[in-house]
Each structure stands twice: as C-alpha cells, then as structure tokens.
Amino acid sequence: MSLYTEYLEEIVVRKNDLGLNPKPIDASDLLAEIIAQIKDTGNEHRTASLDFFIYNTIPGTTPAAVVKAAFLKEIVLGQEKVEEISAQFALEQLSHMKGGPSVEALLDITLTSTLKRLAKFLSLKYFYTKPIPLALAMPSKQAMPSPRTS
C-alpha cells in the first residue's frame, strides 16, 4: 500500500469517526509521492494531489515544506512544468510558507535570476563588441585632466 493510499484512508477515518478535516501533510515521503502523481499527467489522483499539495502541506520548516519549496522553485525556474501552477502562483505559494526552506528557495530564485541577467549583460557588453584598442582604453598621463586644487 502506498503512502498516498494510507493518507486517503486516514482522511476517511478522521472525517467519519472524528468529524475532522484531512490531516495536514508534514512528511516528505508522502509529499514526494504526491508530487510524482502531479508530474504524471495521466494519474487518476492528479487533481486531488494538486489540492493536497497546495492546501494541505504544512508551511514552515517541516520535512514536507522542504520538498514543497524545492518543487515550487523548480517550477519558477522552468525546470518543471505544471499546467495548473504558474511561475507566478509558485512564487506566491513560496511567499506564504513562512520558513527556512521557502526563504532559501526564494533567495536561490533571486540569485539565479540576477546572475542570468548579469551574464546576459556582460556577454552583450563585453564579448560581442569590437575590442577597444589599448591606447584608447588606457589614456596617457598627459591626456588625463589634472586634479583641481582649491
């Protein structure tokens, strides 16, 4: 029996016997299985898995939050594609998670984005232009203005 099936059975017991909502997900193994079902577009549990992923995963520093933050980061960076979760929505989810894993993911996204823009700028600015003759790049002392004295 899979962790997901056990989780579904636990939901039924909690609802019928105790009148409770589904237990929040804090286990990384269960969330990893749910993410695998989300990635499998033909999985019969995909829609429910999306709901559990978005609404039932405990934010903060739980093992499940680490897995969720990593998956959302992959979506934002374009490494994973989930039709129902846009990059903007993934960023929104990360911003509401309130913990170390989400902060780390947000910093990684920011740094990756900044580094990509910097690399593009440098490649356009310095590698696709004609080389500057050394005489123009390094003016002689005579061509440099003298400092002002007051």
Structure write-up:
Helix 2 crosses helix 3 and helix 4 packs antiparallel against helix 5. The model has no long low-confidence stretch (mean pLDDT 85). This protein has 150 residues and is an all-alpha fold. It is built from 7 helices and no strands. The protein has a domain at 25-113: Alpha Horseshoe (Serine Threonine Protein Phosphatase 5, Tetratricopeptide repeat), CATH 1.25.40. Helices cover 62% and strands 0% of the residues.
Topology:
Elements (H helix, E strand, L loop, with lengths): L2 H16 L9 H12 L6 H10 L7 H14 L10 H9 L4 H28 L6 H4 L13
Helix pairs in contact: 2-3, 2-4, 4-5, 4-6
| Number of E-type strands | 0
The helical percent reads 55-70%
In CATH terms, what is the fold-level topology of the domain at 25-113? Serine Threonine Protein Phosphatase 5, Tetratricopeptide repeat
The total of helices stands at 7
**Overall geometry:** elongated
Element pattern in H and E: HHHHHHH
Q: What is the CATH homologous superfamily assignment of the domain at 25-113?
A: Aconitate B, HEAT-like domain
CATH class of the domain at 25-113: Mainly Alpha
What is the distance, rounded to the nearest whole angstrom, between the alpha carbons of the first and last residues?
86 Å
Can I get a quick summary?
This protein has helices spanning 3-18, 28-39, 46-55, 63-76, 87-95, 100-127, 134-137. It is mainly alpha-helical.
